[in-house]
Write a structure and sequence with these properties.
The protein is an alpha/beta fold. The chain is built from 16 helices and 16 strands. A seven-stranded parallel beta sheet has the order 3-2-1-4-5-6-15, with helices on both faces. Strands 10-11-12-7-13-14-16 form a seven-stranded mixed beta sheet, covered by helices on one side. This is Saccharopine dehydrogenase.
Length: 456
Amino acid sequence: MRTILIIGAGRSASSLIQYLLNKSEKENLHLVIGDLSLALAQKKTNNHPNATAIALDIFDEDQRKKAVQIADIVISMLPAHLHIQVAKDCIIYKKHLVTASYVSDAMQELDAAAKENNLIFMNEIGLDPGIDHMSAMKVIDEIKEKGGEMILFESFCGGLVAPESDTNLWNYKFTWAPRNVVLAGQGGAAKFIQEGTYKYIPYCNLFRRTEFLQVEGYGRFEGYSNRDSLKYRSVYGLDNVLTLYRGTIRRVGFSKAWNMFVQLGMTDDSYVMEDSENMSYREFVNSFLPYHPTDSVEIKTRLILKIDQDDIMWDKLLELDLFNPNKKVGLKNATPAQILEKILTDSWTLQQDDKDMIVMYHKFGYEIYGKKEQIDSKMVCIGDDQTYTAMAKTVGLPVAMATLLILNGKITTPGVQLPIRKEVYEPILKELEEYGVVFKEQSMPYLGYNPDKEFS
């Protein structure tokens, strides 16, 4: 049997493992599922005869190398910064590697060695990055093949709560790593290009510069800018494009509300708050407000954030129980961002019957035979339950499909790579449709931006 080593059995691995187990008999596969928690790995095997669970500590070099050695191909579902040691083992033992993470500089440095050993190191093959690359390149390639020249590309993606589970004023729950949500947008200005002009949005303004999107059957959404849209110009072959913008999708009103936390300083992760363990939620809020001999914490919050009495923003803050004097933070040496994450987790954790939702939206503007055209491509995926979530499906299924295509010799180009070539994206996008990941493409009149570029 052909052995697939899967390192990491967390939430994102559910649909990935199930897909490969379902294919295991026909494709002659045996899955070795390794995780620091043996119990978690065992749970993910579903007692399937073609799966073996092992306790795997990737910091244990002997244990890690032994596991890699026996595999025909390795899937790493570890946090991004931990892939590199696994990747180096894959070079030594000549094993293909698949990850859903962004290509790091350290991973890119292995490109020559991977090619020399005829190894495929497929990265960025999850949701975002992953499905976004594949669905975008499909349309971009089609436009270029019929003689069109790309002038605009916008891409938005968001992990949200499904409409039937949308039960709070923020229209949001954590469907993935809460810490990443709290820290989103930090670490430098967002940068993109719009109508040929470079644009920059500093973090302090990020959540007040949004675009609006309409998705049939699901209503209105907003998108705020990702940190660096420009790095995909060359990757997508869009060096001469006039507009390139990538953003994150939320329900309308979320960004304006989130900006209250940014203004107060609650998303800061750069310092530790004294005695955070014994701090109440109310004291946490008050620590960011000026002293006043008579005004309450509520009044001071309203004043500093300029919240009117009838503003829904106030109700959103109240819903989080932020002003509760009895709830304790309970975290030692915590940063403001860590405390905010704890408070939000109280309210935004998915309940047992909740379902999540992925929304992706691409806009392609192009010129052909002297005329400007536009194609909008939209995808909505709803999770089945708390195990087979939309996030687990859209991250895990492309990883599993790419792994099988590599094993079966359908993907052959060696090296460290992204899924931007036809041999990768065509079969995977086609198969994803069987699992409810379907893009609906629509021809539109070209909308663009202000044609007066001098003032845009």
